[in-house]
């Protein structure tokens, strides 16, 4: 493309515009989400009611988009990395918005800046656009702090990266799962103890596929104290582990309540995060 002398190329203008964009940023207003469907077997309400015009692409009006592409790729030159991945924004009820904020609906991601409008990212629907399109949008910062940005990234990871536990393990931890979900948000000592945990991880030795598996649970706390509300952490641990059955191919190893500093790097990478809200099984 020829560019008059003294004028910036359109590519430079796009690159300049994209320098301000970050993962989690949004555009509001009427936008159109495009997806391909099979006219012979439509699966959604939108595709069922699509005009029968011999086409297999459908546009649906949405309230806006949120950017899913990592920031490092957004700011690279558009001729090198021309594409941006986006997800549509959808409005949800107040109750659903709270569940999404608590991580209980992994198909969605909370957008902190859009909380008053109850607009969230629908992660089940993604679309690719070129950076020239994004350069024309009015940017709204979706995440205003580093912590908010990390939580948004974790929501994306949770949607795509949940470990698929064996079905019998899901049954094995069912009582523990029910207990922790029931108590987590309670204004009780146990509820506050659960909220003081950063995450729960489980390690399978020698492997998840072995006939007999030794499980080590790491309840990772956020502070250095050896007790919570005057109760030693090992007592909370014993209370929770008693909910696990003693039958089947799983046995308990030396589980513990620890800090990240207590874990070795090998322990961390050899274990899997236990998403008690939505355990993903291999048949899911």
Automatic annotation (TrEMBL):
It comes from the Bacteria. This is Uncharacterized protein. The lineage of its organism: Bacteria, Pseudomonadati, Nitrospinota/Tectimicrobiota group, Candidatus Tectimicrobiota.
